[in-house]
Amino acid sequence: MDEIQFAQKNGKMLSTSEMNEYEYSKEVYNRWKYHPVIPYFLTKDQALQAIANKK
Amino acid sequence: MRKLLILFLIGSLLSCTTNTKLETVEVHFYPSFLHPTKFTIDLEKKTLEQYTYQDHYNVEEKTEDDTYVIHQKDTLIVHYQKTFPIDDEVLQHFLRSIESNEFNETIENYKPVLDGIGFGFKKINTKNDSISLSSNITNRREATIEYKLLEPFFELAYTSIDDYEGISGVENIQDYFAYGLRIKKAADNPLEYRIWGSIRGCREDQQELLTFLENLPDNEPVLFDLRNGSFSYCLDEVLEEFVQKKTLYIYGNKYATKAKK
Known about the structure:
Structural class of chain A: mainly alpha
Distance between the termini of chain A: 39 Å
Strand order of the largest sheet of chain B: 4-3-2-1-6-7-5
Order of helices and strands of chain A: HHEH
Number of strands of chain A: 1
Radius of gyration of chain B: 24 Å
Distance between the termini of chain B: 83 Å
Largest interface: A-B, 24 and 22 residues
Number of helices of chain A: 3
Number of domains of chain A: 1
Oligomer: heterodimer
Structural class of chain B: alpha/beta
Shape of chain A: elongated
């Protein structure tokens, strides 16, 4: 269940801008997560770990 | 008697001049899509206060015919408020800029703009008299005095604020002004750069970015901190190209991090 469905289930009314922002975040996340070329990491620690693993 | 009167008048004028000195400088920003922020520089205490707030919010009410009516509620919400000490040398440098001859009378520089940022500098003396500069012009060719004040202000802010949220707030404000490529060096080992605003456009608009990426070392890992910045979609192909040529590690895309939560 995504954030919009979760909020609605709990009786919270999300504004149009909140829903648009969430949809945009989801789109960007999926684009990054499944991007075949660009090495993307959520945190600096993850990026540093990747550098260490490559050495 | 006449000479005595003249001496008295001169004496009075001199005492006025010596008793009034600059006490506070306020710098206010009203960005289109962010909450207003006021910076207060207290010259006696040598402190900088950063204060982000909103004085109203809107509530949407659904009507019977499925449209929305927006009600404005007046209330003060404080989003950020912290005070930081200022290094004396940094403060003196800022004061020399703010006390220049060009900013010795109240100035208003406005032109019609769709979105953008309104901002102002206010010098307040010990008698509570003030001189201010108010503007919404960010083009460097048209905003000469503005940038002469903005540059030492941003230098003072970045040197004094030692809080991540505070620095991010300053970056978000600076992103409205003409400051070239929004990339700054953050660390040497490993080499790390911070993207501090929106890098827009496509390859043909971003010669400065291309030159920057070309000049990165070939065989050394380079981190990019994207926690408070972004590359446009159109620049994906540029990043893809340089990922093949260099060793880039990009972390902290704020939208992706938010969605992950």
